[in-house]
Design a protein that fits this description.
By secondary structure, the protein is of the alpha+beta class. It is built from 14 helices and 22 strands.
């Protein structure tokens, strides 16, 4: 079947790379894509947010499956328009995408269905936010209610930090949350109505600086699997968090279809939901894709067409992967653009390494340049975590990108556990 992939980041490059290896994948088209995605797919200059243009492209190219990578088109209802045109879509409806589009919606759903999560309060004004801070004390978590590209969360350890966060937000919807103590892990599940099966686990690194310091980013690296999320804890999270969510969404007449990414806190009381994303995480996707066995295109098509319960569960290779993000100077603030990137071929000569393009473009002279904050996602796979990590950093060190920087401590939790 012909497949259309929407998006232009590192997540989509990893998806395109893996879909291209699928026996059931015919033509692979990306809109709009990027230079890295162009290695695996035909890139077409169509805006993923333009539902009409995407529908016309799908019809003209006899598309059998549309895979929507980013969250914004999902929340905007692009998937709904495509389904209305009779197309198979991997990704939820706009109504179901509220699980990511509104933190408050998700918290209310958890409360109504006894899904374990942090205590919280929804606020609309600065005065309400300040009153909520008095109630919760510190540490406390302040979240923007809408989409924030992974950067709308402040974990305030002091009252001054908390007040600065709510003052910066001003009047508008926020969720003020109880601080949860424990270790975070990400669980990715495929969901088709009331059917939900686990796919993979990962841990990411949100802070820009080593030692988990500095402001939150979209993610500076990730590894998969996350050993801290044991098979027992994964089963508990599926039974107490993911499946009750799927049932609640179906009962409300807004069934979820796609990948549901549960950010979990592994507390002393067991897994508790931090938040949902309604698509593959980035850079977690770059770490997960090399581990999935079988025909990924057919697997996603089964989800899109309501056949998840009829197929064998997805399989992972049993190997380990580590992804290190190379970002442009200034990220997560104003990032430097236009810097030349060279020697990616040298990096990919390291065994088990693929360099995914997260924010690149081609200059007028045909040179690869940076375009965006997170520029490259260097991913390595090996039989052990330690070897995968060593390969990833060997590849990062081979890349020539003067404006780039990266964290040297991706996977530090696993290193500590091993020592």
């Amino acid at each position: 079947m012909n497949i259309l992939l929407l998006g232009s980041g590192g997540r989509e490059d990893a998806l395109a790379w893996r879909l291209r290896q699928s026996p059931s994948c015919g033509e692979l088209i990306a809109a709009p894509g990027n230079p890295g995605i162009g290695r695996w797919a035909e890139c077409v200059a169509v805006d993923p947010m333009d539902a009409r243009a995407v529908t016309e492209l799908s019809r003209s190219r006899s598309i059998g499956l549309v895979v929507i990578g980013p969250e914004a088109p999902l929340v905007a209802g692009v998937g709904d328009a495509l389904r209305a045109a009779g197309l198979a879509v991997f990704g939820p409806s706009a109504a179901a995408a509220r699980l990511e589009g509104s933190k408050g919606f998700t918290k209310d759903l958890c409360k109504a269905n006894s899904i374990p999560t942090a205590d919280y309060e929804r606020v609309e004004t600065l005065a309400e936010a300040r009153a909520a801070l008095d109630r919760f004390g510190t540490p406390v978590v302040i979240k923007a209610d809408g989409l924030a590209a992974g950067k709308g969360v402040t974990v305030a350890m002091t009252l001054a930090e908390a007040e600065a966060a709510v003052d910066a937000a001003g009047d508008g919807p926020l969720v003020i949350e109880e601080f949860l103590d424990g270790e975070e892990a990400s669980l990715f599940a495929l969901v088709d109505g009331e059917t939900a099966v686990p796919l993979a686990s990962a841990q990411d690194h949100k802070r820009v600086g080593e030692g988990d310091t500095g402001p939150n980013t979209g993610g500076m690296g990730a590894y998969s699997p996350a050993p801290v999320l044991t098979s027992e804890l994964e089963a508990q999270a599926m039974d107490e968090i993911v499946r009750p969510t799927a049932r609640a969404m179906a009962a409300a007449g807004t069934p979820f279809s796609g990948v549901l990414y549960a950010g979990l806190m592994l507390s002393r009381e067991g897994p508790r939901l931090i938040e949902y994303n309604v698509r593959f995480g980035d850079p977690e996707c770059e770490a997960i894709m090399p581990l999935i066995e079988g025909d990924l295109a057919e697997l996603l098509h089964c989800v899109a067409t309501g056949r998840l319960a009829q197929i064998e569960p997805p399989r992972l290779s049993g190997r380990h992967s580590v992804t290190v993000i190379v970002a442009a100077r200034g990220y997560p603030g104003a990032a430097a653009s236009g810097g030349a990137i060279r020697a990616i071929e040298a990096a990919e000569r390291v065994e088990g390494v693929t360099v995914f393009h997260a924010g690149t473009a081609s200059s007028s002279g045909g040179e690869l340049i940076a375009k965006g904050g997170r520029v490259l996602a260097v991913t390595a796979v090996a039989e052990t975590f330690a070897n995968a990590r060593a390969r990833a950093y060997r590849a990062v060190d081979a890349i020539d990108f003067a404006d780039g920087f990266h964290r040297r401590d991706i996977g530090w939790r696993e290193l500590e556990r091993a020592s």
